[in-house]
Amino acid sequence: MADPAAHDLDPAGQQTSDAFTGVLTGFARELRAAGLRIGTGDVLSYFAAMTPLDPTDLLDLYWAGRATLLSRHEDETVYDQVFRQYFLGEDAALRGQLLFSAESAAKAEAALSMPGTEPGPEQDEEQPVLGWMASDVDALKHRSFTACTPDELAALRRIMTRMRLTPPARRTRRTRSARTGTEPDLRATIRESMRMHGEPPGQLFFRRRKTKLRPLILILDVSGSMTAYSRHLLQFAHTAQHAAGRAAKGRVEVFCFGSRLTRITNELTHQRVDAALEEAARTVEDWEGGTRIGRSLDELVRKWGRGGLCRGGVVVICSDGLDRGDPEVLALAMERLARLCHRIVWLNPHKGDAPDFRPSTLGMMVAAPHIDLLLSGHDLASLEEFAGMLPALH
Amino acid sequence: MEYPGTVAELTQCLRGGGYLADRGLATTLLVSLSLRRPVLLEGEVGVGKTEVAKVLAAVFGRKLIRLQCYEGISTSQALYEWDYARQMLQIRALSAAEATDERSVDQLFGPKFLLERPLLEAVRQGDRAVLLIDEVDRADDEFEAFLLEVLSDFQISIPELGTISADSSPVVILTSNRTRELHDALRRRCLYHWIGYPTAEREAEIVAVREPAASARLVGKVVAAVQRLRELDMAKPPGVAETIDWVRTLGVLGETELTPDAADDTLGAVVKDRDDLELVRDNLAEIIPGG
User: Fold this and answer.
1) Percent of chain A, pLDDT > 90?
2) How far is A298 from chain B (nearest CA, A)?
3) A173 interfaces chain B, CB cutoff of 8 Å
């Protein structure tokens, strides 16, 4: 039903542009408060976008805002919530300031309550929780890394920061000018020729393919059976991210898994190790719980792999292979992962120093055919060994 | 033909070109047309991202300039290149006196020897063109950074010629399949719209517009089957393009009914992955009921 007062007012006369400006900037403020990153430029675009549209039409307000204020799909759920609250909310403080045509309000309500054509991130997040409840051995707790002795941490850090992780390089399609190469660099050659007043230059210039470091993807097992190692591994991951050097910046991805997969790349970007580890520990919800390697890898391939995250990269899985899930799921996920990425390295702490180690867990046996390199990673020496072998994984 | 001023008119025009845009897409496009801001379209594979640009160009009589991105694409493939072979011949033809003349050098790097590539062409055409930068996620970071410059000012600096700028900026559509995260700087310069899978009714409508020869009954059944396929846990869920392909395939084979047998024979039109194929075959009875 339309607000009865609306009939008494002439929309054009009452809706001063000031009120409109206030409402839109207020909306942007709410969105920012909800965690979206919206710049003043975006808000200006929003105003500009409303010029050809109808400001009394809620649907126009909705879609114009979505096009100008958002820049990624993941933010749409938050936007919808804030929009509903702000423009259609119960408190309705705004209805006094702006008059929306009753018909459009009803339509907007319908559009917002319509189930998305695609499951939003919210629904995505619910699924793992269900899986988590189904798992009997999971324990939901935040494990603090600061619990380990400061001396121990300091020693580890000192040694680890000296480690350099250099993933193998690959040749890109991009070229640079060089003295020798496969393709002639006509541009440089002609320029040289001009310098010589049209004489053919004494030497030809060439173009050579550039090289680029492959992405490095670390997948860490933080389940119960790996408790003794997960702390070291996480510290190792932090070092990897910061020590990978300038060339590989942003090319290191870190995931944790127990019974579910968590991406902790962003959490680990903190410069200070302790802060980064704490941040990561807060994000990962299934410390020392059960293990679902297969399901976690499957999720990696589906959710991240399909987006090209591990395409052509070196995937490092740190786990003991004690999988409580279906081995078939693991086998399939490993096969897919192997097809997507360049090399798979498995660090299994149970391997220890034994050179003739044979995988005894079912998970390891299933995964073995797809592993290019099996190392132990149970102590710093073995991690150093890994760092040494990494650049050679062509 | 002028671009329309309201969402309803634009929707109608696009429909005339065989494209059914929903309210969100039409609004985004209208805003883009009036503000002349580029549109970044993201979405699942095969939901008609590229088609938007093609239809816009066709309906409004603009020239479609397409830049297909790929890894290693460089300015010489996207922007301009000098015609080196002709330049070399020209240099050889010059006499010694002419070669030292400033003017002949200017001529050598003049418009005559410039090969236009899509971006330069779009800047020159201005409003007479629709520029489609397809699958921008396939290009690498360096190219993305370069695009920023072009997209924000619509001007291109050629050291030898000077700056070429558009008198009116062209309509620009960028598409991305999200194989790589695009930089925020590029996103900020664009309007953003996500194209998801359509609802069953809408998809049936789209297929009917694209394949008018197919019977409504067959289209309905195919669409229902595809919608069920998307609910399966597939590695590569089918897009609208696959639905249209499937209807077309069935039409070529003269099938008027989607029976499990007919579906089994033509699954290759919708399912493009071996593991998916097995999964679908196992669940065929649920996907195509009443067989």
Assistant:
1) 5
2) 10
3) yes
pLDDT beyond 60 at A121: no
Closest-CA distance, A210 to chain B, in angstroms, reads 10
Q: Which of A186, A212, A238 is the last residue of a domain?
A: A212
Q: CB A71 to CB B5 under 8 A? A: no
Structure tokens at A48: 């500009």
| Cβ–Cβ gap B179/A42 under 8 Å | no
Task: Clarify whether residues A279 and A374 are in a common domain.
Answer: yes
Tell me how close the Cα of A108 comes to any Cα of chain B, in angstroms: 11
B160, amino acid identity? E
Instruction: Say if the Cβ atoms of A41 and B179 lie within 8 Å.
Output: no
In a domain, A241, yes or no: yes
Residue B54 confidence (pLDDT): 95
Cβ of B235 and A302 within 8 Å? yes
A51 reaches B (C-beta below 8 A): yes
Beta bridge partners of A344: A315
Domain identity same for A203 and A302: no
> Minimal CA–CA distance to A360: which of A330, A328, A393, A323?
A323
Average pLDDT of the residues in A22-49: 89
* CB contact at 8 A, A99 and A6: yes
A247 touches B at CB < 8 Å: no
CB-based contact, A204 to chain B, within 8 Å: no
pLDDT top residue among A309 and B155: B155
The CATH number for A276's domain is 3.40.50.410
pLDDT tens for A362-385 read 888 888 888 888 887 776 677 777
- The closest of A233, A218, A186, A220 to A205, measured between CA atoms, is A186
A160 and A206 in a common domain: no
Whether residues A331 and A375 share a domain: the answer is: yes
Which residues on chain B are in Cβ contact (under 8 Å) with A63?
Answer: 23-24, 27-28
Q: For A208-248, how does the pLDDT look when each residue is reduced to its tens digit (9 = 90+)? A: 888 888 888 889 888 777 776 777 777 778 877 776 555 55
Question: In chain A, which residues have their Cβ closer than 8 Å to the Cβ of B6?
Answer: 52
In this structure, the strands spanning B63-68 and B129-134 are parallel
Q: Kindly give the parts of chain B with pLDDT less than 50.
A: 291
Range of the domain at A201: 171-212
The two beta strands, B162-165 and B155-158, are: antiparallel
Query: Cβ of B192 and A67 within 8 Å?
Result: yes
CATH entry, B7-71+124-195, from 3.40.50.300, 1.10.10.10, 3.40.50.1240, 2.40.50.140:
3.40.50.300
Q: Among the ranges A79-83, A200-204, A232-236, B29-33, which has the highest mean pLDDT value? A: B29-33
Q: Which residues in chain A are contacts of B199 at CB distance < 8 A? A: 117
Nearest C-alpha neighbor of B187 from the set A70, A37, A40: A70
Cβ contact A67–B31 (<8 Å) = yes
Q: What CA–CA distance (Å, rounded) separates B178 from A309?
A: 10
Domain shared by A314 and A340, yes or no: yes
Q: Which of A70, A72, A193 sits opposite B91 (nearest CB)?
A: A193
A285 with A347, same domain?
yes
Does the distance separating the beta carbons of A118 and B44 come in below 8 Å? yes
Q: Per-residue pLDDT tens for A237-292? A: 887 777 655 555 567 888 988 888 888 888 877 777 777 777 777 777 766 677 78
Instruction: Check whether A163 has a pLDDT greater than 80.
Output: no
What does R_g of chain A's alpha carbons equal in angstroms? 28
What ipTM was predicted for this assembly? Answer: 0.72
Query: Nearest CA of chain B to the CA of A180: how many Å?
Result: 20
- Residue B250 near residue B222 (C-beta atoms within 8 A): yes
pTM score of the predicted model: 0.69
